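name: query_chain
kind: protein
chains: 1
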Amino acid sequence: MANYGYEGEFVLPVTLTAPADARPGETVPVLAQASWLVCENICVPEEVELSMVLPVQAAPGSVDPRWSRLFETAAQAQPRPSPWAAKVDGDAERLRLFVAATGLEAGRFSDVFFYADDGNAVQHAARQPAHFSPDGLTLDVQRGIDRGKPVAALSGVLVLSEKLDDGMIARQAFAIAAAPGMVPTVAGGTAMALPAAVDISAWEAVLLAMLGGLILNIMPCVFPILFMKALAFARLGQAERGAVRREGLAYTAGVLATFAALAAALLILRAGGAAIGWGYQLQSPAVVLALAYLMALIGFNLAGLFEIRLSANLGGGLAGRGGSAGAFFTGALAVLVATPCTAPFMGAALGFALTASAPLALAVFLALGFGMALPFLLFSLAPGLARLLPRPGAWMTTLRQALAFPMFATAAWLIWVLAQQAGPDAMLAGLFGMLLLGFGAWALGHAERRVWIGRGIAMLAVIGALLLLRVPQEAGGAQAGSVSDKAMPGPGRSAVQWTAFDAARIAEARGKGQPVLVNMTAAWCVTCLVNEGAALSSEAVAARLRERGVLALKGDWTRRDPAITRYLGSYGRSGVPLYVLYPADPAAKPVLLPQLLTESIVLDALNKL
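structure:
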C-alpha cells in the first residue's frame, strides 16, 4: 500500500469568503476541523478542531510579511495547468501516458513522476520509466486495482524534477488531464537516466575504469586473495613458462567473467526498477553470510584442517597446487571480495557505465576487470619476473598456514557486517554455521580409514550451515530500514556527531546559512571504514565541524536504500563511498571530496568554506 504524504513544514491554502451580510465593527468566527495521519511504519490518526474570531473592517488591514511570504510560496508550489495536450492508452496491465511537451531533454531531469487523482487507477509505488522524444514525453505506468478494465480518462499531477548546477532540485508540477487516445510509438528518443556529475567520454570512462581496477589490487579487501595467488606463483617460480602463462590467463579469465556476470545482473536488475549499485550483492544478509562461510572454509583448508583430493580444490588447489581451474576460481573470488572496495577513478567510470547503453556499460566493467587482473597477467607473461621468485621449499607450508589468518579475519569482518544488517540473532546463526563448517572440515580431515564417515559428517555440517542462511535473510527483512538509526557504521567511537541522512535536510540547512557534509557509507565498504577511522572520526575534524557550524549527515547503504541510491546517482555514482561538502551559500556549488581521505584533506576542505 502506498500513500502520498508530506514531510517537514507545509501549507495547504484554502480560500475563505466573508459572509455577504458582514458589517464593519462586527466579528466573524472561523471554524476548522482537521484530520490527518502521522505515518512511518504504521499510521496514527489525529484530528483537531480550531477556531478564531476575525474583526470585520471597511478597508484591508495590515498583513504580517511572514504570512504573506508563506502564502506566496505555497501558491507557487501549486500545480499549474498543463500547457500541453495529453493522451493515455495501454493494455490490461500497463498504461502509456503521453504528454506533448516538445523540447524537453532527458539529461535535464533527475526524476519524472505522475501522481494520479484516482487512487485505483495506477500502482503508486511502482516505477514509471520515462522516455523523451522530439514529440514529447511518454510515461510507462503500472495499472492499479482497475487493471483489466477499459482504459479511461486519467487526471493527476505530473512532477518534473530538475537538478540544478548547485546540486539543488527544482520541481515543476503540472495538472494533467489525459483523454483516451492513440499514444505515438516512442522512436528516436532517449530513456531518462540520472545525469552524471562528471562529463566524460566513453574512452575516458574505459581508461578510468582500467586505472581504478589496477588500484583495486592494493585495497584492503583484496589483500587476502592476492596473498593466495602470490603463494601459487611462488610455487610456479621454477616451473615451465607455459604453466605460468596458463595460470595468468586463467586468473584473468576468472576476473573478467565474474565482472561480466556482476555487471549483467546489475544492469538487468536496474532495468527492472531495482535501486542498486556497485556492491549490491553485499546488501543481502544471506550473501554476506555465504561469503563469510567461504572465507572460513578457505582458511580451514589453508591451515591444513582438511584437504579435497581434486586437481583444483577449494583452498589447496588455489594456494598450494595451482592449476588453471584454481587460478580461474581465484580470479572470481578476488572480484567478489573486491566489491566492498571502491578505488580512485572507479566512481566516475561506474557512474558513466550505469547511464550508458548496455554494450558500453559492459565494456567499462570489463576494463575495470582487466585493470585488476593486469599485474598478475604481466607477471605470468614475463618469464624474467617469474625466475626472480624464490625456490619452493618448506617455507611455503608455513606461509600457506599463515595465510589462513587473513581469511579468518575477513570472515570475522563479514560476520560484523551481518550484525549491522540483521542484528544479533543473525550474527549468532552465522557463528553457529561457521562452527558447523569447522566441525565438518575437522571430521573430513581426520577420517583416514573410514573416509565415507568423514564425508557424511561434512555433508551434514554443510547442509546445517546452509539452512542457517535463512535466519539472517528473515531477520534482515524484518529490520529493513532500521540500520541507519541503530547501527551507523564506523570503527569505534567517532568524535563527530553524525545525523542520519535525509536529502531534505540539505536544502533546509543551506536555506538557513548552514554548510553540510554528507558521508555516504556502508558497513561492508572497507574503503569507507578506513576513511572513517583515518579522516572522519578525529577530534580535530569534529572541532572544525563545530567551529564552522557544519551539519554532518551520514547515509548508511549497508542495506538497500532507494533514497541513498538516487542521491548517489545524482552525482553519477553507483556505489559508496561518496563525500560531498555543501557551502552555506545555496548558490555555491557543492565540493566532491576524494574517495580516499586523510584528516588533512578534510580539514583543508572545511577551511575553504
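note: DSSP finds 21 helices and 16 strands in the chain.
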